[in-house]
Amino acid sequence: MTQFEFAQKLHGRLRGKEIFTNEEILARDNGLVVVYGASDDLMEFEGAIYDEVNAWNGGLAWVMDNGTVIDNDNISDEEDEQMSNAGIYTIRAVWKPKELQGASWLIKTEIPHATFDIYDDENPEQIFCRGIVFALADALPSPVNGN
After folding, report:
1. CB-based contacts of 34: which residues, under 8 Å, 6+ apart?
2. pLDDT for res 144
3. CB within 8 A of 55, min separation 6: which ones?
4. Which tens digits make up the pLDDT trace of 55-69?
């Protein structure tokens, strides 16, 4: 299954029902990572990466070469600069994005990805979050992708 097919599967879900256990397993087995904003302060990772990070203080996370993520709350300014200089991919959770009026979260990254929309459970016509799906292999440093 491709990241585009998986994003299409998730598109249109309601907040709180973003991804089910069997889909988490399917994403993991296909090397895909699903990222979305949850609550008012979390960025959730499901599938090939399973984690959550604080998204409130800038909402920035890095995909490390061992397939984990680290957020900007858990690194020093020096480490932040080193990772930026090393070209490690970032994922950013943007709270109340101007480009997605009315939404709570917009997930952004330089990693090749597909997007999906999660709608507010209290107002099903309003987007709550625009999430992303990417292949973990695309996020890891390799000579092929130049990262």
Report:
1. 6, 10, 18, 19, 24, 27, 44, 45, 46, 47, 131, 132, 133
2. 43
3. 37, 41, 42, 43, 71, 93, 95, 105
4. 877 788 888 888 888
Q: How many domains does the chain have?
A: 1
∠ Cα 38 3 115 (to 5°): 45
Portion of the chain with pLDDT greater than 90, in percent? 61
| pLDDT > 90? residue 37 | yes
Can you read off the two tokens belonging to residue 2?
A: 């491709």
Residue 145 domain flag:
no
Helix (H/G/I), strand (E/B), else coil: 4: helix
Q: Is residue 48 part of a domain?
A: yes
Give the Cα separation of 147 and 144 in Å (integer): 8
**CA–CA separation, 121 and 13 (whole Å):** 9
Range of the domain at 12: 3-139
What predicted TM-score, i.e. pTM, was given to this entire model? 0.90
User: What pLDDT does 115 receive?
Assistant: 98
